[in-house]
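Internal tracking record. Fields below are filled automatically when a chain is submitted to the structure queue. Please do not edit lines marked as system-generated. If the sequence contains nonstandard residues, flag them in the REMARKS field before resubmitting.
Queue: standard
Priority: normal
Entity type: single polypeptide chain
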Amino acid sequence: MNYDYIGDDNSVIEQCLIVQEPFWNFESSINGQETKPCIYKEYIDDIQKEVVIFHSFNTAWMSSINENVGSLFYPIKNIEETINTKATINISVFHHHSSWLNPNTEENNKHEFSELINSFSDVVIYGHEHERQGMIHTDLNTHKECYIFAGEALQMNQAKKVHSGFQVFIINTENRIGFNYPFHWNGTIYSQQEEQKFSLKEIGHNNLDFHSNQAFLSSLNDMKLPLFFNDDKKIKLKDIFIYPDIEKTNDLKKELYENYVDSSIFIGSSNYKVVLLEGENQSGKSSLINMMYLDSILHQKFPLLINGKCFKKMEIDKPLEKAFIEQYENKSFEEYSQYSNECKILFIDNLNSAELNNKSILELLKKLENRFSRIIITTSSIYNIISVLESTTKDVFCGKILPLGHKKRNKLIENYHRLNEENPYSITEQIFLEKTKDSYEQVQTFLGDKLIPSYPIFVLSILQSMNLVKPNNYEQTSYGYCYQSLIHFALAAKAKIKNEDIDTYINYLSELAFSLFDKKKKSLSDIEFQEFHKNYSANYIAPSFTEVRDKLLGSGLLVYDEDEWFHFGYNYIFYFLVAQKIATILTEEKGRKIIQYLCKNIQVDKYANILIFVAHHSKDSFLIDETILASMIPFDDIEPITLERNGSFNELIKDIIQEFKDDIIRSNTDPIQEREKSLESRDKLELQMKDNTYEEDYQNMPSEIISFYQAVRSLEIVGQIIKNRKGSISKQKLHEMIKELYLTAFRTIGFLGKIVKSTKEELTISIQSKVEKADSKSEIAERINLFFQLMSFNFCLGIFSKVINSVGNRDLKPIFDDVANELNTPAAKLISFSIKTCYGKLSIPELRLLYKEFENNPVALRILKARVKSYLYNNYVKYDERQRIASTLKMSLIQPRGNNLISRT
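SYSTEM-GENERATED OUTPUT FOLLOWS
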């Protein structure tokens, strides 16, 4: 058997594989999915950011009874290009040792197979010999090592003599230390034999030529943000890192989603010679480039990392050689320079720190392009080399590092909780899911609507702050503590301000923010800044202007833009500090007038957010009373909907309910997948809305639209105050606030119903007047009617969701019930039921009562069923409980075709 015999097609191999059909059927039954016969297959497993690949070589594809040593053939050429070795650990598994392969072919199949296996494998496991062996193979030329193990068969031999055993391998993917535990049948039990310890070489040492300096790799993998966990474990970057998305800024495509890519693609992609990634100060540029460096080693590359500040002249060899000596340990820089460019990647961190002008930078990059297959660069978002590079260089990708979207934000939170869990293997899937959801919602509360960009450092800082405060006590002081911690961290860690001076700088920032707010300004010039400092210094002790300015710029809390204006780096800093000042004067006439002004203009994002932050700083009842009043004003003349069977809103949408009747529940949904799909949808929606972000001109808007914005904002503000302050507000006041929040939502829906009714009639008459045929007029009226009904129903669900997200909290369940009982309408009962199932376990007895009450109310029943389906799809619910829930609602529980029990090999 040789390559000529098997030919270019796979017909010979496919024919021989037929006899193995029982094995492939067995594998299919285990995996729950069809497995096609093959001579090579990969099994990939992702273990907490570490990728392990099992390479299964079917060396028995042409095996026969009474075969001879050297009689088999394995077609390496047919599979070698498909082998993926980009893993933390590569384990090769096969039955026949290479000695069974034919050494007399033109290529020497025995040597060909051994050379391939040993070139990439960390561990090799084979059978057939039925004898336990363990050895280490070292290539003296490349210093590549792999551990080779063989074992006994788990069976009796033909002579009925006991000869049976098995082995267990445990490998720590972090320190790469492994243990082999052999077991042998002693006639009674399988007894453990002497264990064998082995140590796999570090990643970077098993590359063919250049060995990475492990101390340097370890420094890249260190977490720069200190994270404290329950067991004081030391967290590495790779344990928690999530690759951010990149927004393309050059050569924009027409399709929206084509302008956004995952940053991980640049490690293996060869589409671009130069990749330039710009990012804000806290966007995680250095962490991104460090992770790319580490992962490029898994892609069999020999990367080099250099900081932009190392390029002070046009000389490139000296800084490159210095970087090489620091990062590699077994060969010379000259050997590296002469090595194939295809295997080399250059990473330049903070190109903006290079002491070169734009022309020199371009010349420098042209020189470097001749030395590396790819250059990946990070730079400041205000660095002006980007536009020059875009216009003068081909094969270049320019992009902006984006904050984490909803899906990736959720993944980061999952990573955090897995690392923080004392025993991650004992926690149930549902409890872990609930912890992730709770943290996600709390993080969302902190991030707000564009208050804080969801860069990993902010998300992790928020999680860390919540972890350090008293558990389950996220009220005013706790939320305030988290925001305060972010500001404190920026001053202490970034600006290196002494702890005893932190209060001085926070007070300075608060007065500066309030001064801008009072003057209705967003930024100030250098002269205005100096004037403010002069006035401030007359009332408070403060360092010199130069020292304060430089420290605040160094912290990133204050930014000096390219137009030479000073402004706060992020909205949350400005709003938080303005609110801090307002809270100190809330008992004064000026403070109360400010609160009244903010409530009157609650539809404006800036004012709404400042109100939320004031609630973080103050417990004054005046603030609560004013926000309740603000929520009552919009649509105070509109009757709130009730969703009673014969109510006006039900009459408006009753036809569409029958049109989209859905009484089927899927039985085997995966809550994680459902959650990911939901988060992906939110990400896509935000991308669509991204280009529509502008400040509304409320002065020129109709009063009804302003009232609508005020109503929606009131839901958010009152909800936030309730959640943040639930531990310091009386139950009676909480009841009053939640009741008014419900009624505001119901009046808002009622307002839309009124608008829809009049608009629908006007539009129908207008279009029908242009049509002559009677049947066409009837069809037009029906279509317009269904369109407006669908829009109204979706709007109703949207407002319900707004209430659930705004005020939802598991600690307030009794109050939600009390409010629903007091209002005593289907709408109120549905809202309270929805909140409780979103933030807790569904009660089947309560579901039965609601079903009985809504059985003859199609609209209320449709909303109830939708809420229950959402609960079932987004939580781990046992099958028998799903059956009881489906039976209660008289819905069908089905298992869709094509769903596999296991979705990943």
